[in-house]
Amino acid sequence: KIPLIIDTDPGVDDAFCMLLANSSDRVEIRAITAVAGNVPLCHTKENARRLAGMMGLRGTRVAAGAEKPLIVPQETAEMAHGKNGMGGLELPETDKELDLLPAWDVIYEECKKAEGEMQIVAVGPLTNIAIALLKYPELKGLIKHLIIMGGAQTTGNHSPYGEFNVWADPHAAEIVFQAGVPMTMIDLDACHMSYLTDEEYDTFVGMKNRYSENFFEFMAKREEERKSRMAGTPFAGKHSPPDAVTIAALLDEDLFTYEWLPVSVETHGPCMGRTVVDYRNREGKTPNCRVVRGADRQRFVNLFYKMAEVYAK
Ligand code: BDR
């Protein structure tokens, strides 16, 4: 099994990411580390704890991390995720406890234990990962692969070029991109290529399972409201929770095709948070990131259907 850490700011689509990860018998979630992002840390750590409890992840460590971005002022995304991050859904209480150590120490300890096999899926601002890499310089050699949900090859969703996660902490993102860790960027354009149609989403929600009532059906109602907000955007008629797409890239290596390219992050000015992909390598830098170039959308749909089947048992 692939040892996995999910660094996350739950977040509605973060919850989809965790549920999808946990439906796979190919991964073992060793830790869930919470970061501030979609909503403040007080909510993201609580949601992470409750989601871990809901999924029965007894042996998985859940730790709280950064409360604020490294340098820029904090901005959150309640508009998309509601005040509590779960769109108003009250997740079931749990006796699952938060780790006594902060996220960066848990990340380091778990990577050390995994002896070079650890994969990290980071679906929030990259503050925890940047702090971990700064605090433990040897950490970069212990991460087998890092897959992030972040960035955009064309336009942003939070500013003209800024995708929310990278935009929310651009300095952390730049530290992570330049750290020398093998990494994959599942950016907004990749998410546009990998989605469920309205019909497929309805089919998925109709596949009753143990999380239908306390999660998927509630989220389906929210998607109805989201439809009007998305009208006229590239996401209209597409159900593509970005963080779930990101874990899907780990679960199915053939979902996307990739190219290794040099990528850097703009940390100031009107393009702050932009992920600059040097497609023609004009700057002659060593490629540091796998960038998505194509997708086989049906594979994503299949993973969702499979998740519903697994949880129906
Ligand atoms: C990303 O930002 C957040 O709102 C989502 O959870 C996702 O990680 C999409 O830009």
TrEMBL record:
Domain Inosine/uridine-preferring nucleoside hydrolase: start-end pairs: 4-301
Pfam families, sorted: IU_nuc_hydro (PF01156)
Keywords, in A-Z order: Glycosidase, Hydrolase
Keyword Mitochondrion on entry: no
Protein name in the entry: Inosine/uridine-preferring nucleoside hydrolase domain-containing protein
CDD domains on file: nuc_hydro_IU_UC_XIUA
Entry keyword annotation includes Hydrolase: yes
UniProt cross-references to InterPro entries, sorted A to Z: Inosine/uridine_hydrolase_dom, IUNH, Ribo_hydro-like
